[in-house]
Amino acid sequence: MVKLVCFVVVVFMAAAAAMAGADRELKVGYYEKTCKDVEKIVNSIVVNSIKANRGKGAGLVRLLFHDCFVRGCDASVLLEKSEMNMHPEKESQANIGIRGMDVIDAIKAALEARCPNTVSCADIIAYAARDASRYLSRGGVDFPVPGGRLDGVVSRSRDADAFLPDSAANLTGLVRNFRRKNFTVEELVILSGAHSIGVTHCTSFAGRLTAPDAQINPGYRNLLVSKCGGVSPTATNNHVVVNNVRDEDGAAVARAMPGFAARVRKARDYLDNSYYHNNLAMAVTFHADWALLTGKEARGHVVEYAKNATLWNVDFGDALVKLSKLAMPAGSKGEIRAKCSAVNSYHH
């Protein structure tokens, strides 16, 4: 009887904590007493992963946005298909090509060995995005990350479809999308600067392949067409293309855009304000990028960040902190997942 009572108390306490998941207070140094070296462990694995494959860094930065903008920062983007989540966020077209989950899994395994059942996958995503940003910006982007998030138990592709911005959206749609999450036009422009790194697929910018000269540098359009094998990308020619024209093959840029060839950089996936310079030159990948030039306020911020790289570094860090604080929907259940790709068994 005593054992039964104890079990009921433990379950009740766990349930109470879970239901409070959406209202937990986040704080910097959250694991100081429970898992002191958590941020050092995360940083070590992130840096080593990026050194081995630089593209992993962009994936980790993107992962924070694609997680938090849907159901708050709850690591729901990491969940695999299961009886509980038949169509998880990973299946959404908005999450095509998403990367970095293997790095999160490696961090989780190391932390479970060090501090079992202590650090949430959601917190790992936030720490990893900060560390990737810092490494790819050569220390320019750096900020304190609060911890204390719980992992959600719900993951639905339709939620990702509903909340993640469309790469073909116009400015009105983008502004409306970001306002739903309490982000300003300025913050929309700031976060778009992450497109200085990473890759995308041809189907994600298909409209740009036939866009008029008033919307895209003709040479850059020709370069994209050559990368995609034509103007109608399909499953058979949905190639991977770098987001930043400065990361393209130098010879290809020299052929399509001779005047831009000198801007091709030796270090690929460098997080900086080059996105804003590219945008003003109408050499950006997505229609949603170019759309920032169609409104006075948004265009003003594009010009501002093109002129001031240091300001963008600071403001990008602040925007990521705000992003990392997006909470789960009220009343949501939360837990510390034992494995980032699956909810804990007692929820089945």
Automatic annotation (TrEMBL):
Its main location: secreted. This is Peroxidase. InterPro entries: Haem_peroxidase, Haem_peroxidase_sf, Peroxidase_pln, Peroxidases_AS, Peroxidases_heam-ligand_BS, Secretory_peroxidase. The keyword Zinc does not apply. Keywords: Calcium, Disulfide bond, Glycoprotein, Heme, Hydrogen peroxide, Iron, Metal-binding, Oxidoreductase, Peroxidase, Pyrrolidone carboxylic acid, Secreted, Signal. Residues 1-20 form the signal peptide. It comes from Oryza sativa subsp. indica. Substrate binds at P165. One of its GO terms (molecular function) is metal ion binding. The lineage of its organism: Eukaryota, Viridiplantae, Streptophyta, Embryophyta, Tracheophyta. It is found in: Secreted.
